[in-house]
């Protein structure tokens, strides 16, 4: 999908504004002799930006406005080393809240809804973003934040929450608790908006069934704005993204060249109107594709397919490259196996060989031995790797209020 004339003018304006500043990217573009773009070809010659740039420019080297225009900063979650800090102007904050309000509307949520927000507050973008969008829409915000499951369930019942926003991992935990406590007939939830991590079809179906909700995938990342730059619609076929705020291209991560619409690759995002910290051609490492066909819902906003994973989620054992999404696909084929699993990888010095241990949960109605054998054979046939399989009862593996860590590599 190429830039339209309006988007191209927006990118050109961003560059012209950046090169007038002493920000990290302003200096980079000046040094490279970049003074604007007038065509798709010009745009595709622009250098990529990356999280490594943002860490190098720590703390506020990417800030492109005077201090007095910055009203807030946010920082991304789960980083190592120097954190990534993103400054926001008042317009950035308002634009972001408008995008999240749009997401709620796309999900059929109105000002009559009561939205229980379980995402983290503070430096992380999710909690405050979900709340700002809720208030922009005019719905009732219930700003719980993460954790304290007893209190979450009490408020869910007493305040008759109709919408839940959460990571999929915490939505799973709440679903299981509601099931254990026989509370299903006491809750009023109708819709769930979940993001920040990929999740399997098996987990999705469990949450959908146990909570009795319509499920919507929300997309975003702190470096761009936060959650809310896109969301799935009632058709549940990819995520519509707001192309008046962001331009998305898909590149081949090896050649770094754009691929045609419909072809899978790495998601690269350009902010079109962001003031505090504009980013051009930011490499997200998310793996997805542009869906070229118009959506049956009738929306004119373009669509990004469900994110399959991240290019940096890949792990290698016995020379084989694997992704968590492939593991989830295998487990989805096995009867009685839950969505929860973890993988431990280590190097056995005695045989000078890497070993992989996959721990999965299964329902008590199935044979754990036969289930383990089935999973092992599927790994062998589909991924050419034969792991050690441990099958444990459902509920054994730890649940989390944040993002689940699936792969633990002890070789690092």
TrEMBL record:
Single Gene Ontology MF annotation: phenylacetate-CoA ligase activity
Keywords, alphabetical: Ligase, Nucleotide-binding, Phosphopantetheine, Phosphoprotein
Domain AMP-dependent ligase C-terminal positions: 319-411
Domain of life of the organism encoding this protein: Bacteria
EC number: 6.2.1.30
Boundaries of every AMP-dependent synthetase/ligase domain copy: 61-270
Stored InterPro entries: Adenylate-forming_Reductase, AMP-bd_C_sf, AMP-dep_Lig_C, AMP-dep_synth/lig_dom, ANL_N_sf, PA_CoA_ligase
GO BP annotations listed: phenylacetate catabolic process
Functional pathway: Aromatic compound metabolism; phenylacetate degradation
Enzyme class, UniProt record, top EC level: ligase
Subunit annotation: Monomer.
Family: Belongs to the phenylacetyl-CoA ligase family.
Name used for this protein in its record: Phenylacetate-coenzyme A ligase
Source organism phylogeny: Bacteria, Bacillati, Bacillota, Clostridia, Eubacteriales
